[in-house]
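## tool: complex_structure
## caller: assistant
## args:
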Amino acid sequence: MQGKPFQFNKVRIALLAVVVTFLLLFLAAPLVVVFGEAFAKGLGAYFAAFTDPAARSAIWLTLITTAVVIPLNLVFGVAAAWCVTKFSFPGRSLLLSIIDLPFAVSPVVAGLVFVLVFGRNGWFGPWLSDHDWHVIFAWPGIVLATTFVTLPFIARELIPYMQEQGRDEEEAARLMGASGWQILFRITLPRAKLALLYGLVLCNARAMGEFGAVSVVSGHVRGQTNTLPLHVEVLYNEYDFSAAFAVASLLTLLALVTLGLKTWLERRGAQSARAY
Amino acid sequence: MHTAITISDLSKHYGMFRAVDSVSLDIPRGELTALLGPSGSGKTTLLRMIAGLEQPDVGEIRFQGQDIAGLAVSERRVGFVFQHYALFPHLSVFENVAFGLRVQPRKQRPPEAAIRGKVGDLLKMVQLASFADRYPAQLSGGQRQRVALARALAIEPEVLLLDEPFGALDAKVRLELRRWLRRLHDELHVTSVFVTHDQDEAMEVSDRVVIMNHGRIEQIGSPQEIYHRPASAFVMGFIGQVNMFRGRLPGPGGGDLRHERLGAIYFVRPADVEIQRPIAAQAPEHMLKVSRIHAAGPLVRIELLGRDAQLVTAELTQERFRELELLPEQQVQVQFRSIHRFDS
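## result:
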């Protein structure tokens, strides 16, 4: 019996060592490298990377894309989660699987699909060019691709949460005379507030960081259709390492902020779960 | 007797399962009606169809003679109390009760002062006036259910529906709350229907009991009628404790043995089993053996074993028990004061 705790300790230390090694190798080291390289040529060079017009354009495009994508996803996510959890209808489980499609499909394939549909030789290509509307190799294409890739985030956070809450409260509100909108805004959404915020944070991070799908539809026009991740790639391919890492550090900072927000929301969620 | 709700030939299927099977029922105005039955008997489905939360496949429901099939849930003026309270966790007790008033269209909505007054009165009525600013999570189960009741009454419903309202509470609170609900009903006289699987609850609280089984109504009657004149073997077995005998009765019987025949089911309540000291010349097959004595309680429960290990439960007063001086393993004989027979 006395040997057992010791054995257990050995296993525990071994497991811990494996985990720590992986974390250092794959998470901590890259983080150090990003910031190290970003500041390699000094503070001046670091900030110069952001004053460059191409960089500003990339930041701007990323912000605009995110600003369009998030509300779209919010509407879709809430609508989808509401449908799936509060109503029973034929095709409900099919809808549930379709919501996950963007997770299963490679982002590059998603980008190619949009090129096939909206590109010059695509289904709507001739009609779009007749009206002088540019989707592919322009910002609408970037918005479309980003929306597609981030579509499941909010719905996926809301669905399990709303499912667990059941329908009783909504039914109670309905019986008291509340309309559908009143139920949504006064009962369902306030109750699912934390899950919604959590989904928004994740969606935001992915929208700003998406590379594959956006890369296919953007056309890489410097100063016009490059988002932040694409801009990093361009700088890197031009051997402008310190600028590439400076811009990359911005994306990394965003990831760290996301992580912080996520942890905070989870803690809040755990607290309110105890309170209810 | 005025009828508040008329239900005619109502049915609801879930796949192959007949949840409610051609039910017709009149619910009298101002009375408290219990829908009583085992789980899966269709009582909750029936209640939810009255509320409009489920759509019937066939049949019709009328409120004061008016068909409500076309009425939206929100227009039926139904107060509903859920088993698990269904309070809004992010709203205070006050706002929970005020919800039904605040969501009314602007033209009908009472002014703020009227809402405050009304919610205050309701909270006083459910004895929670000092809890207005608390949140549901800070209340006990019994308090939560009282908030739910105040909230359901805030819209001045035509009908109050309660789905296992005491089901989530512990035994002592359950008992208090159901007596309180009865007193409240005597003051308000709002037509109420409540679902329960607890026969004591149904018998104690309600004016009328509707007993359901397999989606059908077995019997409708006052608690006394149901207890003394059960309409079927199911009702007899469901209400209170019974001894059930198939085909023949044990002992020489005080019951009329000429009725004894195969295929019949006999029920005798434990309180109707009279234990007697054996008379000397009794045939051994008419004797029963005392196997267990439970004397802790107002009544003494005795378990007797007859021929073929037939178990008979008897209940007698402490006084009678002392008089008989019963001991385990003792041989006794029984007489049945009252026997219910149903032919199967």
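## assistant note: The CA atoms of residues 34 and 220 of chain B lie 10 Å apart. The first strand of chain B starts at residue 3 and ends at 14. Handing back to user.
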